[in-house]
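Researcher: Structure for this, please.
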Amino acid sequence: MCRVCKDKSLRHFAMIVGLGAMLILSGCSHPLTVKNIRAYQVQMPMPLEQRLSIGIIPQAGDRDSDLILKRIPAALHSMDVTMPYQRGSSCKVDVIAQVSIQPEYKGSGWNFLINWPGFLIFTPAWNGYVYKVNYKVDVNLIKADGNQPISSFSNPIELNIRHAAMNRTWTEISWLEVSVIAFVGGIVFTGFDDQVSTLTAEKVKDDLAEYIAAKIIGTLRAGGYAHRLPSDRSHIIHASQS
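Model: Predicted structure, token format:
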């Protein structure tokens, strides 16, 4: 074979390999999906029989869980909300709510198989990698007048996540050579992908805020607090109803 023909063949081969790599990588992402989000989607809760004011003392475990906390005031649309609230504040409220959201992030052993030998059928692209994003929600409700406890609850939220981004699916170039890259990548990818925590919080913040708000309102109703009209605020509530 002449040298010119050989050079052309090498260039054609390089183009084919490059095109193949681009096609593989461009199709190897999976948008973040929360498989069980319906378990935490609620209908609009029944409002309290009187409009109360509530001061929220928030405690977030990290910046991402704080995204959820910040949406709770809007979700408590049937109440007058002050957040963040400080004890002894000149802003008078009926109820104080200490709300804590502590996150836990987990990868999955399934991600090894998804990456290897799953790369052979592009499993990361159509299935996504498996992650767990859990939030431990603790709420303590206190009657502001006298600091008398009303009720408290602890509620675990466990989200089943699927996601695949280019920072991991690039290992599917194993199609173009031996599969050692996908094999090693699969071992690494059993851990958690840090970007998933922010993507998840952005996606579920409204649903989970509504869920937590419904729990707060339901707890107040169950405790009969909706029927108690603080005497020192009765004129304010009557005025708002006139």
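Researcher: Any notable elements?
Model: Confidence is low (pLDDT under 50) at residues 13-27, 228-242. The beta strands are 30-34, 53-60, 80-82, 95-106, 129-143, 148-164.
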